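chain below, 281 aa
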Amino acid sequence: MHGADPRLVLGLHRSRHNRDILTAALDLGVTALDTATPYLNFRSHTVLAETAADLLPKFTLSTKVGFFPGTGSAEHSLDPGRLRLAVEKAARELGREPDTVLLHNPERSLAGLSPGDGHALLGSACTALADAARDGLCRAWGVASWDTRSLGMVQVDDLPSPDVLMVRAGFLVGIDLLDATTVVRTAWQAGETWGMSPFGGGKGKVWEDFDPRPFLRPPHDGLSRVQAAFRTAFHLPSAAVVAVGTDHPGHLAQLVQSLGAEVDTPAVDQYLRALHVHRQS
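prediction:
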């Protein structure tokens, strides 16, 4: 049994929610789960409670609200009343209060709004989640954003500061998005930064063409390109934890193993400078 490492969160996006991956995660010391209301066709919370009710107390659990079942497809809303009800429903479905509730891709509802209207809408949504945390419906609240560039167009420095800002991480994130994340989390004075989607949604062929192992300090004998990509994702951008999804215990074990490697931060800094130069050329 490995010691618990809070840096790796098992994400359930695209997961089949099988019990064996949850037990494997615990055996590997991975004690954090991340899900969302719309995962598994809006059944993630219920299925977790049905198949792993005895395991859930052993995990810290984060979920996301903001998407709702609609006619033909999911709809997005930042209405504070709907968000409050969604947080309450998540706790009922899970059989426990989630540790962290994240506002799910708020940029979906901010698109096309003026900065002033976006500021007001985002502010009311953040206040709803901050109130939910204050009222004991979760321990902490935050924002999960797939594209922080949209958030950068809204003044956030006078809005409630999230405990967590969850953003895309890794080598497949462009420099514009990395810079936008830095601007937003600094202005917002966000607490922890969490990374997500370090492999860009399963684009495995990338690592056949690109070797990220030079971004690790030696010795890193035996680590694969995928392991190196995952470990370096904690610095693109700087993140306390990274959520990664898998249904394969062997893959999860490899990612846990990579956490022992040390990232060559000067090499990462040089890489970022090169991206800035390339953008300007």
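The CA atoms of residues 21 and 53 lie 14 Å apart. The beta strands are 8-11, 32-34, 60-65, 67-68, 75-76, 100-104, 140-145, 164-168, 192-196, 241-245.
thats it, cya
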